[in-house]
Write a structure and sequence with these properties.
single chain, alpha/beta, Rossmann fold, 8 helices
């Protein structure tokens, strides 16, 4: 897909989301108010680093971003995306994996750029997984601003780390969230698709950035009690998707 075609699709998705919002505005506002009162607020996992033994020199893995980077919905990051991804990479490569999490529940990409990127120690990671999209979708970040913030994060990491492989993990599939009613589910799904396409376009332009779309979680057992975040089983599925998608040279 050319850049022009991609931009046309992005504009179409945003326009459709705006139209559906306008047509259903009273219901959308009521659903937002109800969700704000009813959705459980879960804590981030307490552990922020771990290690998986292997037969080859260690891969240093960093997860950077929003709540799914910091293990919300699981009892620990070892049982969330970080730990499951470390084990999946160990199985794929045979290498030991040192993993670390720098994340914050509720953060957008702009907040990660401003507040989390400076916390990344120099030379501390070989693979960085950027976990973003939920909050930018909900906060209606424009695709242009989203692309700008992701690019700034990638460029910062390129200067901070030594030839890092940077993976954008893809946006959680809103259309499969059991806690989201219609039409809010479809509106957020369209906005998420626009941001996903913008990230895909950016990855085609930046050599160090890979974009791996997340697998939709297939049922309620893959979500935690809030109906939004994955359970440990859901994180394991996403980790397998990411590990399979990372190019061999990573």
């Amino acid at each position: 897909m050319t850049t022009t075609e991609s931009q046309r699709q992005i504009r179409s998705l945003v326009s459709r989301a705006n139209l559906l919002t306008a047509l259903c505005l009273p219901l959308v506002l009521w659903q937002a108010w109800r969700l704000g009162r009813s959705v459980l607020r879960l804590d981030e996992a307490a552990d922020t680093a771990g290690h998986v033994e292997g037969n080859k020199p260690a891969i240093r893995l960093l997860l950077l971003g929003e709540s799914t980077a910091s293990g919300v919905g699981a009892v620990s990051n070892d049982q969330a995306l970080a730990g499951h991804l470390a084990r999946a990479l160990r199985q794929k490569t045979g290498a030991a994996v040192h993993w670390r999490v720098i994340g914050q529940n509720g953060f957008t990409a702009a907040q990660t750029r401003k507040l989390l990127c400076p916390r990344v120690p120099g030379g501390s990671a070989d693979i960085v997984v950027l976990v973003h999209g939920f909050n930018d979708t909900v906060n209606m970040t424009s695709p242009t601003r989203w692309q700008k913030e992701l690019k700034a994060i990638v460029e910062y990491l390129e200067t901070r780390l030594h030839q890092p492989r940077i993976i954008f993990s893809g946006i959680p599939p809103f259309r499969h969230f059991p806690a989201l009613p219609e039409p809010t589910r479809s509106i957020l799904g369209l906005r998420a698709d626009a941001l996903e396409l913008a990230a895909d376009q950016l990855a085609s332009e930046m050599r160090s950035l890979e974009h791996i779309k997340l697998t939709p979680l297939p049922g309620a057992g893959y979500f935690c009690v809030d109906g939004f975040h994955p359970s440990s089983k859901g994180y394991e599925l996403w980790a397998q998707t990411l590990a399979e998608g990372i190019r061999p040279e990573a």
